[in-house]
Design a protein that fits this description.
Radius of gyration: 32 Å
Helix content: 40-55%
Order of helices and strands: HHHHEHEHEHEHHEHEHHEHHHHHHHHH
Number of strands: 7
Strand order of the largest sheet: 2-3-4-1-5
Strand content: 5-15%
Shape: elongated
Structural class: alpha/beta
Length: 437
């Protein structure tokens, strides 16, 4: 087929739909679930469908697997989108399922984006799934542990689907090339560009490829190179859900890379999030949090640099201000690490939360009035600046009945190593002052 003929007609249906697998063996990817002896492959061989939730990023085959389940078990297939459907639509689907049953056909009810159903809508599915009227299959890009009601979750097997690898995306490209590309050629660099921007999403790859077909036909191009793709296609940012699992997984990876003293990894995750559209102001706040939580007093400059980076971004905005954030995470990653202050604060907070209300020792109380002085407020208080080394050795500052809990234990790194030495010295002064005789 000539390229001109290929583009003379509208692509109906869309390429992603036309390329949808018709049988299980055509599915590309998900070998952990569909390989020999793997759980979903065994489910297809079981002879009876079961309710399931397919959890994974976009374009990895969730809808396809639901349709193939209906085909494998000779069931009617009813699909609902949680974005557009409500309880009324669920009831209508159940009425259709009852009619199917009266004709001897079982029904697969597929709910796409099940996480968008609220609690009452999810609850409306329960009696029908429990009665066996339908086999429920839900698809979600969000963690079902948080987004799906526990009652519904307990009645469905969760299968985790993964993004397609580059090799799997190339396999899909080659299959599409045989079916629809005709004599249109792609240079290797062009294929690499398409695969990179597909970002593990099969549907995205096919949509980009379809754009290529249209653009190449309009331009009379017979060989597509990387430059043509960059100029002709709308290449969106990498997959990134600003409120979903990708978001929290990536900010977790950034934080752990800083904590693990790996500047390159920290930069990778920072730039991944920026590339994906994360709010730099949110990242600024998280970077400040990292400085206080994982570096603390081991290197107080880290807090200053983190704050300065946030202020710089406020003044410059994107993209110039992002450089300050990048340099901040580099510094935090290579700085001496200590969570001693973070740990001490949490221990103190936990203790106070469960402890009773204790009186302030009389010698530590303020005495601004004559009556307070007569009651002994502030009596025998030792003014530290008047003591040797500006330290009142042996003095107590905690309420009565609380022994020194030693919540703060500085690490032997960075400035905290010196802080630890000073604390040991002050403790020796206390021991000496409290020693009998």
């Amino acid at each position: 087929m000539a390229v001109a003929d290929l583009f003379s007609r509208d692509p109906t249906p869309p390429l992603a739909e036309a390329m949808r697998p018709k049988v299980l063996d055509e599915v590309i990817g998900q070998s952990d679930l569909l390989g020999e002896g793997k759980p979903l492959k065994l489910a297809f061989l079981s002879g009876k469908p079961h309710s399931m939730i397919l959890w994974g990023p976009p374009g990895v085959g969730k809808t396809t697997l639901a349709r193939l389940t209906a085909h494998a078990f000779d069931c009617e297939f009813i699909a609902l989108s949680a974005v557009f459907s409500g309880v009324k639509d669920i009831r209508a689907a159940m009425e259709q399922a009852q009619q199917n049953l009266s004709q001897g056909k079982h029904t697969i009810l597929f709910v796409d984006e099940i996480h968008r159903f609220n609690k009452s809508q999810q609850d409306a599915l329960l009696p029908y799934a429990e009665s066996g009227l339908v086999t429920f299959i839900g698809a979600t890009t969000e963690n079902p542990s948080f987004e799906v009601n526990s009652a519904l979750l307990s009645r469905a097997q969760v299968y985790v689907l993964k993004s397609l690898t580059d090799d799997e995306l190339r396999q899909l490209f080659n299959r599409a090339k045989v079916k629809v590309l005709g004599d249109l050629q792609f240079e290797e660099a062009a294929i690499e560009t398409l695969v990179a921007y597909a970002d593990g999403d099969a549907r995205r790859l096919l949509n980009l490829l379809e754009q290529c077909l249209t653009a190449a036909g309009a331009a009379g191009v017979r060989t597509v190179d990387a430059e043509f793709i960059q100029n002709a296609l709308t290449l969106n940012a990498r997959r990134f859900d600003k409120g979903g699992d990708d978001f929290y997984d990536q900010i977790s990876a950034l934080h752990k890379s800083v904590r693990g003293s790996h500047p390159d990894a920290a930069l990778y995750w920072l730039t991944r999030m920026l590339d994906g559209g994360a709010d730099p102001k949110y990242l600024s706040r998280r970077i400040i949090r990292m400085a206080w939580e994982d570096i603390g007093l081991a290197d107080p400059r880290a807090m200053q640099i983190a704050n300065d980076a946030a202020l710089t971004y406020e003044r410059l905005g994107s993209p110039e201000g992002e450089l300050a954030l990048g340099q901040a995470v580099i510094y935090l990653a290579i700085a001496a690490k200590s969570n001693a202050g973070y740990t001490a604060f949490n221990k103190a907070r936990a203790f106070v939360k469960q402890d009773k209300s204790r009186e302030v020792p009389v010698h530590l109380r303020n005495a601004p009035t004559k009556l307070m002085k007569e009651l002994g407020y502030g009596h025998d208080y030792r003014y530290a600046h008047d003591e040797p080394d500006a330290y009142a050795a042996g003095e107590t500052y905690l309420p009565e009945g609380i022994a020194d809990p030693h919540w703060y234990r500085p690490v032997a790194r960075g400035l905290e190593a010196r802080i630890g030495e000073k604390m040991d010295y002050l403790k020796s002064l206390d021991d000496k002052a409290r020693k009998p005789g």
